Amino acid sequence: MNDHDTPVTQALDLIEDRFPHALGAILGGSAAQGRAAPTSDLDVAVLLPSEGTSRREVVRHDGRLAELFLHTLKDVPEHFERDRVLRRGTVLFIYDQGLPLTDPFGHVARTRAQARAVLAAGPPPLTAAEWQRGRYVLTCFMDDLADTAPTERYEQLSLADSVLREAAHLLIAHHGGWTGIGKWLPRRLLDADPVRGRALLDGHRAAAEHADPAPLASAAERVLDAVGGPLREGYTQRWRT
After folding, report:
1. What is d(CA 189, CA 209) in angstroms, rounded to the nearest whole number?
2. Contact predicate 169/179, CB 8 Å
3. What CATH number labels 3-121?
4. Domain map of the chain by residue range?
């Protein structure tokens, strides 16, 4: 890879070409951490003047996909709050861990400080109803996984995915951490709890590679024990009227 092909130079070219009036930009995701593959897309947050339009946009520039998180300065607090409520912190982490590409007026530095303050405060804790629902849903998936015949591999794999996802979200919330989706879920999971998180991931692998759901079920049970135990009879969910 020559210098022109690096993620940083490609992102800079994109900003200069498409957003010459940007107030600043930052490269995030795997590219900023040196973990990107040659075909990985670029995650770029761009600060726009107030008369711009905040949006999420996917483009291809110089042969490479780029996912753009475009925010006007006045809209930044609203989007950071949305990230906080969703508990994933997607844009927050771009500003926290990303590489500044351009910052002629210091707006990126100030926005990074805002993002870091939100991240340090942590996501909102789950409500009592959310904890109950999480325990109930995970218990249901675990029971279904245990009842699934070994020959029903499609169902077994689907349920293993669901058990991992629900257990991971509960365990991360138990530690007050930020969750994730896709490749970021195992990363956030291991950050929050290296021991129980690894047990969940290894259990999921055992189900996928060896058709053995027992290690995953055992790991999920340990998660449930930490957050109040399995929940079956007695669970109530009120419908909104």
Report:
1. 21
2. yes
3. 3.30.460.10
4. 3-121, 128-226
